[in-house]
Amino acid sequence: MAPKNHRLLSFLIGGVILTIVSCEAPSSSQVQLTLPGGIWEQSNILNLSLPVPDTSARYDAFLDLRLTTGYAYSYLSISLNRSGKRDTLWLSLVGQEEISSGPFTDYRFAVDTTGFSANYAVLNWHLSHYMQEQKLAGVAMIGLLIKKHGHGKR
Prior knowledge:
Layout: H1 3-22, E1 28-34, E2 39-41, E3 46-51, E4 58-68, E5 75-82, E6 85-92, E7 98-101, E8 104-117, E9 122-129, E10 135-137, E11 139-148
């Protein structure tokens, strides 16, 4: 083979390898829902749908919260329902790592870090708050993140 053909062959092989590496499925999926006026009615069940990058993988789940200064409690209790599994979570805001940005404070809570199988192309989660007040003020945004099990810290 002439040297010119070696360069062409190397270029083609490099292109094929780059294409294979760049076509890997993402390792996570995230959805966020903004609550109008920062008010969460107890009767308002939030429906969050996440596309699943790889249905053969196991995932960890995290709940993201963005609260305003109008949030009056040091905890949040929510009812979470996914794939027929229902759970009530009591999330303490005290001692949690938080990120403050102007009028907002962001939190991330591990919901399921033992890993779960995602057998469908889309996961549907239903959340409602389980607090004393019917109208919960100061909840600006709620989000869910699923990340391949054991893929990175957060």
